[in-house]
Amino acid sequence: MTLRRSLLASAIAVAALATPSFGIAQTILKAADVHPAGYPTVVATENMGKKLELASNGKFKMQMFPASVLGDEKTMIEQTQIGAIQLLRTSLGPLGSVVPDVYVFNMPFVFRNETHMRAVIDGPIGQEILDKISNSPARLVALAWQDGGSRSLYTKKPVRTPADLKGQKVRMMGNPLFIDTMNALGGNGIAMGYPEVYSALQTGVIDGAENNPPSMFTANHYTTGAKYYAQTNHLIIPELLVMSKAAYDKLTPAEQTLVKKLGREAQMEQRVLWDKSVVEYTAKLKAAGVEFIEVDQKPFFDATAPVRAKYGAPFTDLMARIAAVK
Ligand code: GTR
C-alpha cells in the first residue's frame, strides 16, 4: 500500500469512527487540497468547516487533508466523484477532462485580466458554469469559486518571446488543452501532477513549469534553478470548491442551502487572502533571487490562437458573452 493509499484508508476509517457530539451522530466531512496549511484556499475552506460545525450544532465536522496527502488533483477529483472525499478545492484545469463544459475557462487568454475573470465568475456566466458542473454526470456539486490568479512561466533559461521556449520541456496540468497550449507556444508540454513537479524540476526531467507566485513559492519550485519568471499571464483559471454529490444528497434541503451559502462566503474570504498572498509571495520570490521578466504578451496571445480556435469552437457564443463582460 502506498503512503497516499494508506492515508486515504485511514481517512475513511476516521470518518467511519466519527464520534457522536451533542447527542447526535457527527458526520466528518473530509476536505482536501494540493496546497499546504496556511495557503489561502486551505484557510478559507477550514474556516468554512468551522462555520458549518457551529451552524449545525456539531452535526458536521470538517477534517482538512492539505498538501496533496490524498493524492494529486486528478486522483482527488476521482475520489470526490466516488464519495471518498467530501469537499475538494481544485483548479478547473484537471476538471476540464471530466466536465468538458469548463474548457471555456481553461483556454489561454480567454480573460483580459484577473478583474475581468472575477467579473465573469461573479455574474451569470459564473453561475452557469457552476450549474453545468453540478448537472453533469460527474457526481460533483460545484459550491463556489476560488481565486488562482494568473499563471506565468518559470524556467531555468529566461523566456522573453515564444521563440525562447524552443526545446524547453515545460510541465503543464493534465489536460490536453494545456499541452496544446505549450506546444503552440513552441515548447514541449509535459503533463504531470502537481506533487511531482518539484522533483521533476530538480532532476531535470523538465526545464520549467507555469503557475502563480504563491504556488511557485509554497511548492519550493523556485529553489530548483527555475528562477526566471516570465510574466506571460497566459492562463487565468478560476478555481473551485466542489462537494461530492454522494455527500450533498445526504444533506437536508436546509443543510444544502447552508453549505452553498458558506461556500460563497469562503469564496469571498479566499479572495481577500489571495490578493495579500500574491503580494507577499512575489516579494519572497524576488528576495530569493527570482527574476521577474516583463514580456510583451502579444506574441504569446497570437501563438495560442489555434488553441482557442480548436477548443473554443463549441463555445463561440459564450466566448463572445465573456468578452462583452466589462
Ligand atoms: C495551482 C492550483 C492548484 C493546482 C496547481 C497545479 O495554482 O491552485 O489547484 O492546479 O496549480 O499546477 O497543478
Explained architecture:
This protein has two domains: 25-148 and 238-277, D-Maltodextrin-Binding Protein, domain 2 (3-Layer(aba) Sandwich), CATH 3.40.190; 150-236 and 281-324, D-Maltodextrin-Binding Protein, domain 2 (3-Layer(aba) Sandwich), CATH 3.40.190.170. Helix content is 48%, strand content 18%. Strand 6, helix 8 and strand 7 form a beta-alpha-beta unit. With 326 residues, it is of the alpha/beta class. Residues 12-21 have low confidence and may be disordered. The protein has 15 helices and eleven strands. Helix 2 (40-55) packs antiparallel against helix 12. The protein has helices at 3-16, 40-55, 73-82, 92-95, 103-106, 114-122, 124-135, 176-184, 194-203, 213-218, 245-248, 253-287, 297-303, 305-312, 316-324; strands spanning 27-32, 60-65, 87-91, 140-146, 151-155, 169-172, 188-191, 208-211, 228-235, 239-244, 291-294. The chain is globular. The strands form three sheets. Strands 2-1-3-10-4 form a five-stranded mixed β-sheet, with helices on both faces. The chain binds beta-D-galactopyranuronic acid. Beta-D-galactopyranuronic acid (GTR) binds at residues 34, 73, 90-91, 93, 148, 173, 194, 211-212, 215, 239.
